[in-house]
Design a protein that fits this description.
Layout (H helix, E strand, L loop, with lengths): L7 E7 L2 H12 L7 E6 L5 H11 L15 E4 L7 E5 L8 H4 L2 H4 L5 E5 L5 H4 L7 E8 L5 E7 L1 H4 L5 H6 L6 E2 L6 E2 L11 H12 L11 H4 L3
Parallel strand pairs: 2-5, 2-6, 4-5
Antiparallel strand pairs: 1-7, 3-4, 6-7, 8-9
Helix pairs in contact: 1-2
Length: 225
Protein backbone atom coordinates (compact mmCIF):
# COMPACT_ATOMS: atom_id res chain seq x y z
CA UNK A 1 0.00 0.00 0.00
CA UNK A 2 1.49 3.34 -1.01
CA UNK A 3 1.31 6.40 1.18
CA UNK A 4 0.13 9.85 0.26
CA UNK A 5 2.50 11.75 -2.05
CA UNK A 6 4.97 14.00 -0.28
CA UNK A 7 5.90 17.58 -1.10
CA UNK A 8 7.74 18.53 -4.27
CA UNK A 9 11.09 20.18 -3.52
CA UNK A 10 12.26 22.96 -5.83
CA UNK A 11 15.93 23.93 -5.43
CA UNK A 12 17.38 27.05 -7.04
CA UNK A 13 19.81 29.91 -6.58
CA UNK A 14 19.24 33.65 -6.81
CA UNK A 15 22.08 36.00 -7.74
CA UNK A 16 20.89 39.31 -6.30
CA UNK A 17 18.29 41.00 -4.14
CA UNK A 18 16.28 41.77 -7.26
CA UNK A 19 16.44 38.13 -8.31
CA UNK A 20 15.17 37.01 -4.91
CA UNK A 21 12.27 39.44 -5.21
CA UNK A 22 11.55 38.17 -8.72
CA UNK A 23 11.37 34.66 -7.33
CA UNK A 24 8.85 35.89 -4.76
CA UNK A 25 6.73 37.08 -7.68
CA UNK A 26 6.79 33.59 -9.17
CA UNK A 27 5.85 32.12 -5.81
CA UNK A 28 2.81 34.41 -5.71
CA UNK A 29 1.39 32.56 -8.71
CA UNK A 30 1.34 29.34 -6.70
CA UNK A 31 -0.31 30.68 -3.54
CA UNK A 32 -3.93 31.25 -2.63
CA UNK A 33 -5.71 32.79 0.35
CA UNK A 34 -5.59 30.19 3.10
CA UNK A 35 -2.00 29.15 2.34
CA UNK A 36 0.81 29.50 4.87
CA UNK A 37 4.39 30.29 3.84
CA UNK A 38 7.08 29.33 6.39
CA UNK A 39 10.35 31.20 5.81
CA UNK A 40 13.47 29.71 7.37
CA UNK A 41 16.85 31.42 7.10
CA UNK A 42 19.50 33.33 9.00
CA UNK A 43 19.37 37.06 9.61
CA UNK A 44 19.94 38.88 6.33
CA UNK A 45 19.28 35.81 4.20
CA UNK A 46 16.60 37.58 2.17
CA UNK A 47 13.32 36.47 3.71
CA UNK A 48 11.79 39.95 3.62
CA UNK A 49 12.99 40.51 0.05
CA UNK A 50 11.16 37.31 -0.94
CA UNK A 51 8.00 38.63 0.75
CA UNK A 52 8.39 41.96 -1.07
CA UNK A 53 8.41 40.11 -4.38
CA UNK A 54 5.45 38.05 -3.20
CA UNK A 55 3.51 41.25 -2.54
CA UNK A 56 4.39 42.51 -6.01
CA UNK A 57 3.11 39.29 -7.55
CA UNK A 58 -0.13 39.61 -5.56
CA UNK A 59 -0.61 43.19 -6.86
CA UNK A 60 -0.12 44.68 -3.41
CA UNK A 61 1.95 47.79 -2.70
CA UNK A 62 5.44 46.32 -2.46
CA UNK A 63 6.89 49.67 -1.36
CA UNK A 64 5.08 49.22 1.96
CA UNK A 65 6.73 45.86 2.67
CA UNK A 66 9.41 46.06 5.34
CA UNK A 67 10.83 43.71 7.91
CA UNK A 68 8.32 43.30 10.75
CA UNK A 69 11.05 42.43 13.27
CA UNK A 70 10.07 45.25 15.67
CA UNK A 71 6.36 45.63 14.87
CA UNK A 72 6.11 41.81 14.65
CA UNK A 73 3.24 41.75 12.14
CA UNK A 74 2.26 43.70 9.04
CA UNK A 75 -0.95 43.25 7.07
CA UNK A 76 -1.18 44.28 3.42
CA UNK A 77 -4.50 44.64 1.64
CA UNK A 78 -5.73 45.90 -1.72
CA UNK A 79 -9.03 45.67 -3.54
CA UNK A 80 -9.06 42.61 -5.79
CA UNK A 81 -6.00 41.02 -4.17
CA UNK A 82 -5.68 38.43 -1.40
CA UNK A 83 -4.66 39.79 1.99
CA UNK A 84 -1.04 39.17 2.92
CA UNK A 85 -0.17 38.78 6.61
CA UNK A 86 3.59 39.06 7.21
CA UNK A 87 4.74 37.88 10.63
CA UNK A 88 8.25 37.89 12.11
CA UNK A 89 8.38 35.57 15.12
CA UNK A 90 12.01 36.33 15.99
CA UNK A 91 11.10 38.32 19.12
CA UNK A 92 8.20 36.10 20.18
CA UNK A 93 8.62 33.66 23.02
CA UNK A 94 5.86 31.34 21.85
CA UNK A 95 2.42 30.99 20.35
CA UNK A 96 0.73 32.79 23.27
CA UNK A 97 2.35 36.04 22.14
CA UNK A 98 0.26 35.89 18.95
CA UNK A 99 -2.86 36.68 20.94
CA UNK A 100 -1.41 39.99 22.09
CA UNK A 101 -0.69 41.22 18.55
CA UNK A 102 -4.10 40.31 17.11
CA UNK A 103 -2.91 37.48 14.88
CA UNK A 104 -6.20 35.58 15.06
CA UNK A 105 -8.16 38.69 14.09
CA UNK A 106 -5.81 39.36 11.15
CA UNK A 107 -6.32 35.83 9.87
CA UNK A 108 -10.04 35.49 10.70
CA UNK A 109 -10.69 35.81 6.97
CA UNK A 110 -8.70 33.80 4.42
CA UNK A 111 -5.29 35.34 3.81
CA UNK A 112 -1.85 34.29 2.69
CA UNK A 113 0.27 34.14 5.83
CA UNK A 114 4.07 34.47 5.56
CA UNK A 115 5.95 33.67 8.77
CA UNK A 116 9.64 34.36 9.34
CA UNK A 117 11.33 32.31 12.12
CA UNK A 118 8.41 29.85 12.30
CA UNK A 119 10.36 27.48 14.57
CA UNK A 120 9.50 29.81 17.48
CA UNK A 121 5.82 29.01 16.99
CA UNK A 122 5.90 25.24 16.69
CA UNK A 123 2.86 24.61 18.90
CA UNK A 124 0.70 27.01 16.89
CA UNK A 125 1.93 25.76 13.52
CA UNK A 126 0.27 22.44 14.28
CA UNK A 127 -3.06 24.20 13.82
CA UNK A 128 -2.38 24.94 10.15
CA UNK A 129 -3.53 22.55 7.44
CA UNK A 130 -0.30 20.82 6.28
CA UNK A 131 -1.77 20.51 2.79
CA UNK A 132 -1.64 24.31 2.54
CA UNK A 133 1.81 24.91 4.10
CA UNK A 134 4.73 25.85 1.83
CA UNK A 135 8.19 25.85 3.42
CA UNK A 136 11.11 27.92 2.11
CA UNK A 137 14.70 27.54 3.37
CA UNK A 138 17.10 30.34 2.37
CA UNK A 139 20.84 30.09 2.91
CA UNK A 140 23.79 32.31 1.99
CA UNK A 141 25.72 30.89 -0.97
CA UNK A 142 28.14 33.78 -1.52
CA UNK A 143 28.20 37.57 -1.33
CA UNK A 144 24.98 38.06 -3.28
CA UNK A 145 24.01 34.45 -3.94
CA UNK A 146 21.21 32.78 -2.06
CA UNK A 147 20.26 29.11 -2.28
CA UNK A 148 16.59 28.31 -1.76
CA UNK A 149 14.69 25.09 -1.32
CA UNK A 150 10.92 25.32 -1.61
CA UNK A 151 8.72 22.44 -0.47
CA UNK A 152 5.34 22.46 -2.21
CA UNK A 153 2.57 20.18 -0.90
CA UNK A 154 0.66 18.30 -3.63
CA UNK A 155 -2.36 20.62 -3.59
CA UNK A 156 -0.09 23.61 -4.28
CA UNK A 157 2.12 21.70 -6.71
CA UNK A 158 -0.89 20.87 -8.88
CA UNK A 159 -2.00 24.49 -9.40
CA UNK A 160 -1.49 25.98 -12.88
CA UNK A 161 0.19 29.03 -11.36
CA UNK A 162 3.05 26.86 -10.07
CA UNK A 163 4.39 26.11 -13.56
CA UNK A 164 6.67 29.18 -13.78
CA UNK A 165 8.19 28.39 -10.37
CA UNK A 166 8.85 24.77 -11.34
CA UNK A 167 10.43 25.86 -14.62
CA UNK A 168 12.70 28.26 -12.74
CA UNK A 169 13.80 25.27 -10.67
CA UNK A 170 14.66 23.33 -13.84
CA UNK A 171 11.66 21.01 -13.83
CA UNK A 172 9.82 20.22 -17.03
CA UNK A 173 6.15 21.17 -16.99
CA UNK A 174 3.40 20.98 -19.59
CA UNK A 175 4.08 23.48 -22.35
CA UNK A 176 2.65 24.81 -25.61
CA UNK A 177 4.55 23.88 -28.75
CA UNK A 178 6.02 27.10 -30.24
CA UNK A 179 5.56 25.71 -33.77
CA UNK A 180 2.13 24.03 -33.76
CA UNK A 181 0.50 25.69 -30.77
CA UNK A 182 -0.49 22.26 -29.46
CA UNK A 183 -0.20 21.33 -25.76
CA UNK A 184 2.89 19.28 -24.94
CA UNK A 185 2.99 17.10 -21.79
CA UNK A 186 6.07 17.29 -19.59
CA UNK A 187 7.11 13.71 -20.43
CA UNK A 188 7.00 14.19 -24.21
CA UNK A 189 10.40 13.09 -25.68
CA UNK A 190 10.47 16.10 -28.02
CA UNK A 191 9.43 18.62 -25.32
CA UNK A 192 8.76 21.52 -25.69
CA UNK A 193 7.85 20.59 -29.28
CA UNK A 194 4.77 18.54 -30.10
CA UNK A 195 6.69 16.05 -32.25
CA UNK A 196 9.88 15.55 -34.24
CA UNK A 197 8.51 17.46 -37.24
CA UNK A 198 7.93 20.52 -35.06
CA UNK A 199 11.42 20.25 -33.56
CA UNK A 200 12.98 20.08 -37.03
CA UNK A 201 10.87 23.02 -38.21
CA UNK A 202 12.19 25.06 -35.31
CA UNK A 203 15.75 23.97 -36.13
CA UNK A 204 15.22 25.06 -39.73
CA UNK A 205 14.23 28.52 -38.52
CA UNK A 206 17.51 28.78 -36.63
CA UNK A 207 19.64 27.58 -39.54
CA UNK A 208 17.84 29.70 -42.14
CA UNK A 209 18.16 32.91 -40.14
CA UNK A 210 14.54 33.01 -39.04
CA UNK A 211 15.70 33.71 -35.50
CA UNK A 212 18.14 36.38 -34.38
CA UNK A 213 20.60 35.61 -31.57
CA UNK A 214 23.30 37.64 -29.90
CA UNK A 215 25.92 34.88 -30.23
CA UNK A 216 26.94 32.23 -32.73
CA UNK A 217 25.20 28.85 -32.61
CA UNK A 218 27.15 25.95 -31.15
CA UNK A 219 26.72 22.23 -31.67
CA UNK A 220 24.93 21.98 -28.31
CA UNK A 221 22.21 24.32 -29.60
CA UNK A 222 21.14 21.98 -32.35
CA UNK A 223 21.51 18.61 -30.64
CA UNK A 224 18.28 16.84 -29.51
CA UNK A 225 17.73 17.07 -25.78
Amino acid sequence: MTGAPGPTRVSLTTVSTEDTESLGGLLAGALRAGDVLLLEGDLGAGKTHLVRGLARGLHLDESQVCSPTFVVMNVYRAVGSPTLVHLDAYRLSGGDDLDAIGFDAATSRPAIVAIEWPSRLEERLAGFDPARVVTVHITHAGEDLRHLTIDLPPVVRSRPGTAALLQRGGERVAATCPITGRPVPADCPTWPFADEHARLADLHRWLSGGYTVSRELTEDDIQPQ
